[in-house]
């Protein structure tokens, strides 16, 4: 999964999108000017791709919302508990409405998935913070469940992140290599608990692992660890959905080596799709030189992430779900 720099495609973008190893594209704020423009951009992306392509965006609400102008200002998930005055039932209604609104608006401009929800706990991590629903796992799980049910009710698949939990690590993996020195019992019993519960309810379509090393379990960060991805996630938790790597250009991925080494290690560990963002030369280097395969099992999993319904941006105001979700969230 790659990115592009502009609000329309260059000839190099189109050439890269046609490569058989490219199966996805992630959009950022720089790619957005208006609903009409981004809808045309997603149309161009699909027309240039070699077969189906998965178009994604980080659109969680709060400070992580790539499309803003003429989109609803969705509150941070960490604000929902206060908005509900500590009522779990009210917070679940807010979370479900947020999931519906994210799905409706993002899908209405031709984007297939938002990488959401954040299932981390809001503990000491500055990069997570109010992106998480709550500091207690027993509150995070039902609110994440409601958010996912909202997404699913519109036809969007979810991505639970950042497995098994980034909230208890202070360092930001975009710029550092986070280490979580706690014992296995604590990590499994606290941070991983909401992920486990959502998977037991068969609600999770995809997972994005944390660029974090948990030395009590493995000396590799999660996205490069067969122990984490194959034994714990696929084996112990029985997860059979998509595993997306987090961005392989982040500093938290640097412990593995260069971009080729990172890509090969992530695929060998069990990632179905590799994200290489904000570094075109790294993307080209990996596509040209890395020993990667287009795995049919991964392709089958990724195919299931594509929505089966289409929504038109201009028709959103006529949709009862859109009106109701905005009213519940207090968006005028």
TrEMBL record:
- The catalytic residues are 174 (proton donor/acceptor), 246 (nucleophile)
Superkingdom is Bacteria
Question: Which residue range or ranges hold the Glycoside hydrolase family 3 N-terminal domain?
Answer: 9-298
Q: Which EC class is the enzyme in?
A: hydrolase
Q: Name one GO biological process term.
A: cell division
The record's catalysed reaction(s) read: Hydrolysis of terminal non-reducing N-acetyl-D-hexosamine residues in N-acetyl-beta-D-hexosaminides
Positions binding substrate in this chain are 58, 66, 131, 161-162
User: What metabolic or biological pathway is this protein involved in?
Assistant: Cell wall biogenesis; peptidoglycan recycling
Metal-binding among the record's keywords? no
Q: Which UniProt keywords apply?
A: Cell cycle, Cell division, Cell shape, Cell wall biogenesis/degradation, Cytoplasm, Glycosidase, Hydrolase, Peptidoglycan synthesis
Annotated site residue numbers, Important for catalytic activity = 172
Concerning Gene3D superfamilies, the annotation shows: Glycoside hydrolase, family 3, N-terminal domain
User: What's one Pfam family the UniProt record gives for this protein?
Assistant: Glyco_hydro_3
Give the GO cellular component terms, alphabetically. cytoplasm
InterPro entries documented for this protein: Beta_hexosaminidase_bac (IPR022956), GH (IPR017853), Glyco_hydro_3_N (IPR001764), Glyco_hydro_3_N_sf (IPR036962), NagZ_Beta-hexosaminidase (IPR050226)
Family in the record: Belongs to the glycosyl hydrolase 3 family. NagZ subfamily.
Function per UniProt: Plays a role in peptidoglycan recycling by cleaving the terminal beta-1,4-linked N-acetylglucosamine (GlcNAc) from peptide-linked peptidoglycan fragments, giving rise to free GlcNAc, anhydro-N-acetylmuramic acid and anhydro-N-acetylmuramic acid-linked peptides.
Name-wise, this protein is: Beta-hexosaminidase
Query: What lineage, starting at the top, does this entry show?
Result: Bacteria, Pseudomonadati, Pseudomonadota, Gammaproteobacteria, Alteromonadales
């Amino acid at each position: 999964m790659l990115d592009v720099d502009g609000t329309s495609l260059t000839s190099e973008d189109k050439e890269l999108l046609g490569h058989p190893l490219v199966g996805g594209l992630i959009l950022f704020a720089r790619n957005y000017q208006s609903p009409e423009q981004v809808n045309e951009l997603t149309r161009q992306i699909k027309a240039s791709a070699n077969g189906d392509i998965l178009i994604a965006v980080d659109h969680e609400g709060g400070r992580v919302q790539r499309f803003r102008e003429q989109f609803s200002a969705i509150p941070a998930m960490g604000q929902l508990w206060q908005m509900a005055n500590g009522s779990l039932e009210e917070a679940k209604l807010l979370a479900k409405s947020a999931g519906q609104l994210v799905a409706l608006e993002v899908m209405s401009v031709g984007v297939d998935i938002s990488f959401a929800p954040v299932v981390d706990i809001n503990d000491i991590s500055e990069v997570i913070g109010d992106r998480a629903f709550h500091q207690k796992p027993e509150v995070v799980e039902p609110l994440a469940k409601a958010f996912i049910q909202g997404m699913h009710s519109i036809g969007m698949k979810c991505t639970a992140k950042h497995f098994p939990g980034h909230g208890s690590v202070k360092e930001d993996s975009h710029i550092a290599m986070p280490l979580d020195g706690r014992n296995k019992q604590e990590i499994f019993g606290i941070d991983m608990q909401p992920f486990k519960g959502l998977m037991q309810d068969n609600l999770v379509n995809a997972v994005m692992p944390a660029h974090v090393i948990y030395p009590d379990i493995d000396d590799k960060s999660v996205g490069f660890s067969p122990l984490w991805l194959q034994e714990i996630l696929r084996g112990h938790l029985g997860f059979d959905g998509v595993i997306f790597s987090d961005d392989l250009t982040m500093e938290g991925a640097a412990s593995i080596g260069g971009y080729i080494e990172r890509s090969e290690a992530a695929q060998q560990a069990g990632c179905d799709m590799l994200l290489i963002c904000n570094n075109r030369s790294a993307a080209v280097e990996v596509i040209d030189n890395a020993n990667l395969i287009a795995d049919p099992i991964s392709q089958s999993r990724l195919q299931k992430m594509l929505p089966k319904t289409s929504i038109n941006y201009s028709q959103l105001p006529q949709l009862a779900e859109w009106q109701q979700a905005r009213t519940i969230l207090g968006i005028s």
